[in-house]
Amino acid sequence: MRALSLLGAPYKWGGAGPANFDCSGLVQYVHDQLGIATPRTAAEQYKEAEPVTLNALAPGDLLFFRISGRRISHVAIYAGEGRFIHAPQTGRPVELRTLDDEFYAPRLAGAGRLF
Q1: pTM higher than 0.85 for the full model?
Q2: Residues 27, 61, 74, 78: which is the catalytic one?
């Protein structure tokens, strides 16, 4: 619910709230609001997260993506019902997407939980 309240917030590389966000800054900000210590980058969050299978996803779990290359470079928050919230890139605000999104689905590298 906290992440949903941030829909429409502007993207800014390095942004960690409350006025603007990058992908991992959004995760860190929401987790901080809930008292959950969270690393700063998507790659660090991936390393710290307890793996979760896609069929066991729960709202608040994290989705990790390889946008280009082999490294984890993007993270989103699972919102339930096959949707996720993320801060995509410059020029696009925090938004809601679906797991079957034609851009993100083939780049999904895994899911994890930090709570």
Answers
A1: yes
A2: 74
31 is catalytic: no
Report yes or no: 12 and 18 within 8 Å, Cβ to Cβ: no
Nearest-angstrom CA–CA distance, 61 and 39: 15
Residue pLDDT, tens place only, 56-84: 999 999 999 999 999 999 999 999 999 99
Instruction: Check if 92 is active-site.
Output: no
Residue 46 known to be catalytic: no
Q: Does an H or E element contain 44, and which? A: helix 42-48
Residue 103: phi and psi, rounded to 5, are: -85, -50
Separation of first and last alpha carbons in the chain: 15
